[in-house]
Specification:
Number of helices: 11
Structural class: mainly alpha
Largest sheet: 3 strands, mixed
Radius of gyration: 25 Å
Strand content: 5-15%
Order of helices and strands: EHHHHHHEEHHHHH
Number of domains: 2
Oligomer: single chain
Length: 308
């Protein structure tokens, strides 16, 4: 029976493995947020009715934009399940490359994609730390021992497993931007309703998305007003009292706005459903693109099976 292999590495490798990723993440997040705030389309007034999910670049110019939303949803969902079933790191890496190619073809905002990926950094970083330390050692595994810390053994197989899971999560997360940002949200939700999703669920998502932006805008206005009156955050009761009043006003204004919006919808003839945002029509190119994508997912599963 093959024994477990132990490899001795210098102790100073350990802080580098922890500090370097943390430093890169801490520097990347503020930089990306500042770059994202600077991306303002000249002469374009923010729309607080239904804010777009993308920045308007390449709207309707790529093949992904012209893809029928029903085919897009079904295909990306099936492809995501295929990616989630992969077990070999090489196949998971190939899935990430395919997702990156789709991003380039869709011409979506790169900074928003990176921010979406960074949102997974905490979860994926936890996997990279926990799994190498907790995966049981099987015959043939390689364990890294840092200096004289014999109790701290890092299983290389755990690192590979964590990297595979992270690559699969990254591949699926990268596809969310082409799925959501290449069609208006009402059209995407209309496609979901045509696929059998209850229409009321789509209406709830649409209204929630819209008014999250509206209330966020309202909160920024109230915060600016408080600062103009000399408010400063401190660790005292006055600050807690002011924040409590702030949250209460947000809640009251949200409730009042909800009643006004519902009354306006009823006055305009709302009877449980919104008007269709447009007519959906499946063409031959939609079926062809669906077939190509399904073939790519099948090839990934076959490659994973061969490697496994």
């Amino acid at each position: 029976m093959t024994e477990v292999h132990h490899i001795q590495v210098p102790l100073w490798y350990l802080p580098l493995l922890v500090l370097i990723p943390a430093a890169v993440t801490a520097a990347a997040v503020p930089w990306l947020r500042s770059r994202l705030k600077k991306q303002v389309v000249p002469g374009n007034v923010p729309d607080w009715s239904i804010p777009p999910l993308d920045d308007g670049r390449g709207q309707g110019t790529s093949l992904i934009h012209r893809w029928d939303v029903r085919c897009k949803i079904v295909t990306m969902l099936a492809y995501s399940f295929a990616v989630a079933s992969l077990r070999h790191p090489a196949a998971a890496g190939a899935a990430v490359l395919i997702s990156l190619a789709v991003l380039l073809a869709a011409k979506v905002s790169f900074h928003k994609v990176v921010l979406r990926v960074l949102a997974l950094a905490g979860f994926l970083g936890m996997l990279l730390i926990v799994m190498p330390l907790t995966v049981p050692a099987n015959p043939g595994d390689t364990l890294l021992v840092f200096g004289s810390l014999e109790w701290l053994e890092v299983n290389v197989r755990g690192i590979v497993l964590a990297a595979t899971i992270g690559a699969k999560a990254m591949a699926v997360a990268l596809l969310m931007e082409p799925l959501l940002a290449t069609a208006p949200l009402p059209v995407t939700l209309h496609g979901l309703s045509r696929l059998g999703v209850p229409e009321m669920a789509g209406q709830m998502v649409l209204l929630s998305y819209r008014y999250l932006h509206v209330f966020s805008h309202e909160a920024r206005r109230m915060t600016a007003g408080m600062k103009a009156r000399g408010f400063e955050k401190k660790t005292n009761l006055d600050t807690l009292r002011a924040l409590g009043n702030f949250l209460g006003m947000i809640f009251v204004r949200s409730f009042e706005r909800t009643e006004r919006v519902f009354d306006a919808m009823q006055a305009r003839g709302y009877k449980g459903r919104f008007p269709d945002p447009g007519r959906l029509r499946i063409q031959w190119r939609d079926i062809l693109l669906t077939g190509v994508w399904i073939a790519a997912g099948t090839a990934l599963v076959w490659f994973d099976w061969v490697k496994g």
